[in-house]
Amino acid sequence: MDVVDLEKTPLRDFNQALHDLAGKSDEASFQVLNPRGKHAVASGIDAPAYVEIEGSVGYYCGSMNKQATVVVNGSAGVGLAENIMSGIVHVKGDASSSAGATGIGGMVVIDGNASSRCGISNRGADIIVKGNVGHMSAFMAQAGNLVVLGDAGEAFGDSLYEAKLFVRGNVKSLGADCVEKEMKDKHKKLLRELLDKAGIGPEVDVSEFKRYGSARQLYNFKIDNLEAY
Amino acid sequence: MSRDGRWIHSPPRPSATFDEYAIAEIQRAAATGIYDIRGFGAKRKVPHFDDLLFLGASMTRYPLEGYREKCATDVVLGTRFAKKPIHLKVPITIAGMSFGSLSGPAKEALGRGANAVGTSTTTGDGGMTPEERGHSKILVYQVLPSRYGMNPDDLRKADALEVVVGQGAKPGGGGMLLGQKISDRVAEMRTLPKGIDQRSACRHPDWTGCDDLEIKIGELRELTDWQVPIYIKVGASRPYYDTALAVKSGADVVVLDGMQGGTAATQEVFIEHVGIPTLAAIRPAVQALQDLDMHRKVQLIVSGGIRTGADVAKALALGADAVSVGTGALIALGDNAPHLDEEYEKIGSKAGCYDDYHEGNDPAGITTQNPELYKRFDPVEGGRRLANYLSVLTLETQTIARACGKSHVNHLEPEDLAALTVESAAMAQVPLAGTSWIPGKSNGGF
Fold first, then answer.
1. Which of A98, A102, A217 to mutate to test the interface with B (most CBs of B within 10 A)?
2. What is A2-219's CATH superfamily?
3. ipTM of the predicted structure?
């Protein structure tokens, strides 16, 4: 594993080295020291690389990731794994707002809590939060899955499209057009697969979760729904 | 009226306040219970470039010979930070318009026309199509609040990025694409079910405020290895502060879109009542750049109601580096063409007035996803018409610039202008014609 000390190596040089891996099949691996809250660390990788960051990062860590595994042994700022395409971004601490925003694929795992708007405009990523998520999480989420082992804040799933939401704890309030839905066997199977993929064992029982989805009442403007707008 | 032809009562008198449009809108609102949605830009009369005149050369300055002495038109955008600034042959770009709001052939035609004159086109709310990339030599990729279709592969194919904070037709509003235009392909590109109304977010999902935007732009620079220019587009509302904050946020280029700027679909009340006219927005934006010593270092693109070379020249004279056309480009492609009048009437409009782009029934095949309609549109012919239009805009701009003695269209300056009205004199900060008076400023003499 190559060691990159961001106190000595400019972030631009490190990100460029990661981008230069595109098209190469070698599984390069890096241990990153002293991130000290820098923004856009390990953003835009398109290669099967492994990046382990020792410390906390700023905004947009691992954004637009393809193929790579990015592990943060610390906490992450706004927009963690924004627009993730594939691969895994795993934060051992907490994540700030808009974690996993607009993701298309891949998996985001947050061992701690995620702040507001977690999974906003999700378009296909799987987001697993072991703690709680803040208000307006999964806002306008179009596809993909959000799994919350703790509680969800206010206006959860507001203006939701076709994303699937699973919460083990309490939901403070549901947003417009988000409703609790029946947890069928196929949903339990999906949830189990997501948990397994995130490394969460059978000690977490899928039957403890509730499923939420779109009531699909706001998909086309209806004057009868005026109070919801 | 009496038999001898004299009025015995006052003649029927329409109200200036409750005019035919106001009355019709009240009647429409009462019948439907919902606001009116339409495309196009503001249709009300507002102070515009028509209220300015060029002074031309005279005893104190000499003109350049038309057809002989060179008047250059090229412009370079993105010189502040980008490793690969954009070089345009003409200072007239094609504004962002989405695949979804426009048909695939219409987007292709925009690329063909822009290529022919050496300028850029811009994606829109819905992502980049392969056809669009393939037919546009210089393509600006919009980063919008919805992020529909956004992905790093397309991001890196772009020649520039444009972070859209707002647009002139609806500063503070998000996109809108109603269900009838959501074909299978549009739905797939946007990861949404077919046939639903797509109301794009009005705020970005991963940043709020200009401090965040600075970090967001830093991320976009990292993702693209600092290669391409990054624009920030704002709807004209508080142009001095928005421009200053765009510079602070790290923009290479500021795109300033006035209220006459077009849209595919927005509430009528939004289009006509939010934002300020293009004419009123330019000088404050230029002032902000000058105050920061960034004029000509961060380039300014102005859009919203650009129709003619005179409009282009006036925008440049007020301090813009380039302009952008959207509605004008669509009209050049064939939108609102007179020969379609009968078909427009069948759908409740008429040639010259058609603005129901959101309904997807455009007989010109431009603002539709209906294959029966868009196959009527020939992208090669459309591209040729757009190229002609852009060439005429350029020739007209050069004509005026030469008359003012300029060897480059970007040498035009406010001193070349006079205003026809007090309002336009105040907004453009040029003297009322025949005087040295600029409202709000002390008499500066001649």
1. A102
2. Glutamate synthase, alpha subunit, C-terminal domain (2.160.20.60)
3. 0.96
Residue B431: strand, helix, or coil: coil
Summarised one tens digit per residue, pLDDT across range A93-145 is: 999 999 999 999 999 999 999 999 999 999 999 999 999 999 999 999 999 99
| Element (DSSP H or E) covering residue A21 | none
Contact flag B223-A64 (C-beta cutoff 8 Å): yes
What residues are paired with B303 via a beta bridge?
B257, B324
Region class of B122: left (phi > 0), else alpha (psi between -120 and 50), else beta: beta
Work out the number of other CB atoms within 10 angstroms of the CB of residue A179: 14
- So where are chain B's domains? 39-428
Dist CA B2 CA B355 (whole Å): 43
Residue B20: both structure tokens together:
């035919």
Work out the mean pLDDT of chain A and round it to a whole number.
96
Residue that has been written with the tokens 């196959």 in this structure: B375
pTM comes to 0.95
Q: Which residues of A164-175 are buried (b: 16+ CB within 10 A; e: fewer)?
A: bbbbbbebeebb
- Top residue of B197, B207, B219 to mutate, by most chain A CBs within 10 Å, is B219
Looking up tokens 């990661």, which residue turns up? A18
A220 touches chain B (CB under 8 A): yes
Interface size A-B, in CB pairs within 8 Å, comes to 100
Q: B223-244: per-residue pLDDT in tens?
A: 999 999 999 999 999 999 999 9
Which portions of chain B are predicted below pLDDT 50? 445-446
Amino acid identity for residue A32 in this structure: V
Q: Write the residue in A40, A66, A104 that is nearest to B222 by C-beta.
A: A40
SS3 call for B80: coil
According to CATH, what is the number of the domain B39-428?
Answer: 3.20.20.70
Distance CA B425, CA B419 (A): 5
Within chain A, residue ranges assigned H as helices are: 11-19, 185-197
Which strands, in side-by-side order, build the sheet including B92-94?
A: B92-94, B322-325, B299-303, B253-257, B230-235, B160-164, B139-143, B121-122
Closest CA to B138 of B153, B160, B155, B156: B160
Burial of A3 (0-12, 13-18, 19+ CB in 10 A): exposed
Q: Do B219 and A223 touch (CB under 8 A)?
A: no
